[in-house]
C-alpha cells in the first residue's frame, strides 16, 4: 500500500468509517436451482432479513420474546433448519453469503414448516456489527467455517481476536459461542484465540474441547469429514463479562 492510500485509510478509520481489509469468504456465483429460486421468491417476504434494515427488534421480527440463536455461515442450512425444528421455543437467525445456500435453506424450512427461523444473505461480520443488538443473543454458532488451509491465508479465518471481541458484545452474559471444525489446526487456532480472549469461560472440563452436544445435528461437512477419517472438535465458551 502506498503512503497516500495508507493515510486515506487511517483517516477513514478515525472518522469511524467501517473498512474491511480481509474477508473470510470468496463470493462464488453458483447458479440457483429452480427450487431454490422459487423458495426465495416464496419465502423472502416472511423469512428474509436485509442488512439495510439496520438494528433489529427481535420481538417484532419473531412476534415473541424467546431466546435468539445466530448461526454464521450455515452453508445449505440443513442442520440449521433441523435445529430450528427441534427447538421451537427458540428463535434462529442464519447468516450466509452464498445465495444457493440461502435458497436451499429456505426451501428446506418451507418443506419442514419451520416458522422460528429468519435468514440474511450477507457478510456475517457486517450483520453482527449493524443489525444485532448488544447483549441480545443466547447463542452464537459457527459450524465448520472455511478453514483456509494455507498458512498465508490464515488471516482470512473468521475466528480472530478482533472478531471474537466484537462477537462477545452481542452475546448476553451467560450466552455461549459454539464452534465446531473438522480441521485440527483450525481447532487449535480457535482454542488459542479463545483462551486469550477476555470475558469468556471455557465450558470444557478438560479446558480444551467439549463432546459433540446432541442438539448439534450432523452437517454435510461433518459427514464428509467422518468418511475421510477426520476428527471433529467442538468448542463452547460462555460470556462471563
Ligand atoms: C465450509 S462451509 C460450512 C457450511 C455449514 N456450516 C456446514 O457445516 O455444512 C462455510 C460457509 O460459511 C460461509 N461464510 C464464510 N464467511 C462468511 C461470512 N463472513 N458471512 C456469512 N457466511 C460466511 C461460506 O459461504 C460457506 O457457506
In short:
The protein is of the alpha/beta class.
Tell me, briefly, the overall form. Answer: globular
Tell me what the CATH architecture is.
3-Layer(aba) Sandwich
* Strand percentage: 15-25%
Give the H and E element order: HHEHEHEHEHEHEHEHE
Q: Which sequence of strands runs across the widest sheet?
A: 1-4-3-2-5-6-8-7
Structural class, from secondary structure content? alpha/beta
* Chain-averaged pLDDT: 92
Class, according to the CATH hierarchy?
Answer: Alpha Beta
CATH third-level topology: Rossmann fold
Number of E strands = 8
Please give the domain count.
Answer: 1
Largest sheet: 8 strands, mixed
Q: Which ligands, by name, code or SMILES, are bound?
A: S-adenosylmethionine
What is the share of helical residues? 25-40%
Low-confidence stretches: none
Radius of gyration (Å): 18 Å
CATH homolog superfamily: Vaccinia Virus protein VP39
The helix tally amounts to 9
Pathway: tRNA modification; N(7)-methylguanine-tRNA biosynthesis
EC number: 2.1.1.33
Function: Catalyzes the formation of N(7)-methylguanine at position 46 (m7G46) in tRNA.
Binding site for S-adenosyl-L-methionine: 71, 96, 123, 146
Would you give an account of this structure?
This protein is α/β, with parallel strands linked by helices. The protein has one domain: Vaccinia Virus protein VP39 (Rossmann fold, 3-Layer(aba) Sandwich). The chain contains nine helices and eight strands. Helix 4 packs parallel to helix 5. The structure holds S-adenosylmethionine. The site of S-adenosylmethionine has 22 residues, from strand 3, helix 6 and helix 9. S-adenosylmethionine binds next to strand 3, helix 6 and helix 9.
Amino acid at each position: 500500500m502506498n503512503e497516500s492510500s495508507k493515510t486515506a485509510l487511517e483517516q477513514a478509520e478515525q472518522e469511524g468509517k467501517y473498512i474491511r481489509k480481509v474477508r473470510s469468504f470468496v463470493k462464488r456465483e453458483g447458479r440457483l436451482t429452480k427450487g431454490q429460486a422459487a423458495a426465495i421468491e416464496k419465502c423472502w417476504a416472511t423469512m428474509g432479513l436485509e442488512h439495510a434494515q439496520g438494528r433489529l427488534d427481535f420481538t417484532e421480527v419473531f412476534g415473541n420474546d424467546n431466546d435468539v440463536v445466530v448461526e454464521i455461515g450455515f452453508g445449505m442450512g440443513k442442520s440449521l433448519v433441523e435445529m430450528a425444528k427441534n427447538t421451537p421455543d427458540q428463535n434462529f437467525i442464519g447468516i450466509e453469503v452464498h445465495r444457493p445456500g440461502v435458497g436451499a435453506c429456505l426451501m428446506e424450512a418451507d418443506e419442514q414448516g419451520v416458522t422460528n427461523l429468519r435468514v440474511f444473505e450477507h457478510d456475517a461480520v457486517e450483520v453482527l456489527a449493524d443489525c444485532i443488538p448488544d447483549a441480545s443473543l443466547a447463542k452464537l454458532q459457527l459450524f465448520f467455517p472455511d478453514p483456509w488451509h494455507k498458512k498465508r491465508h490464515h488471516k482470512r479465518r473468521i475466528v480472530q481476536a478482533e472478531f471474537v471481541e466484537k462477537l462477545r458484545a452481542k452475546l448476553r452474559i451467560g450466552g455461549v459461542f459454539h464452534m465446531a471444525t473438522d480441521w485440527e489446526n483450525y481447532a487449535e487456532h480457535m482454542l488459542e484465540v479463545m483462551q486469550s480472549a477476555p470475558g469468556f469461560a471455557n465450558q470444557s472440563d478438560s479446558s480444551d474441547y467439549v463432546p459433540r452436544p446432541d442438539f448439534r445435528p450432523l452437517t454435510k461437512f461433518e459427514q464428509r469429514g467422518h468418511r475421510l477419517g477426520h476428527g471433529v472438535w467442538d468448542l463452547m465458551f460462555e460470556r462471563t463479562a
